[in-house]
Amino acid sequence: MLEAGNNSELPPIPSKRYFTIGEVSELCGVKPHVLRYWEQEFPMLKPVKRRGNRRYYQRQDVILIRQIRSLLYEQGYTIGGARQKLSGGGEDDDLEVIQYRELIREMRQELESVLEILAH
After folding, report:
1. How many domains is the chain built from?
2. Does the chain have fewer CB atoms within 10 Å around its N or its C terminus?
3. pTM (predicted TM-score)
4. Are 64 and 45 in contact (CB under 8 A)?
């Protein structure tokens, strides 16, 4: 499992439409029971539920979970403080800006890996 302080070392999010709770757990470095708990605490986190009440997360859910993780584990926010921050508590930390930053970080990682392949 990933340590609390290395959000930048999380794996890039694959290009697929839906992710299972196990996949999201690995992509975000948190256990599945924590994801289920966060669904109760953060109203903006609503994975699609299909047959058998199975959860399917979309890309924006994974990005949101990574932001929640960062706020709680790295920046020291409480659940209530993180909820308030995500619901519009900061102009610069707008959820859309955070999503773009995450997307840019992932694109950069992918481009660096392509550059490394081409260098060989």
Report:
1. 1
2. C
3. 0.68
4. yes
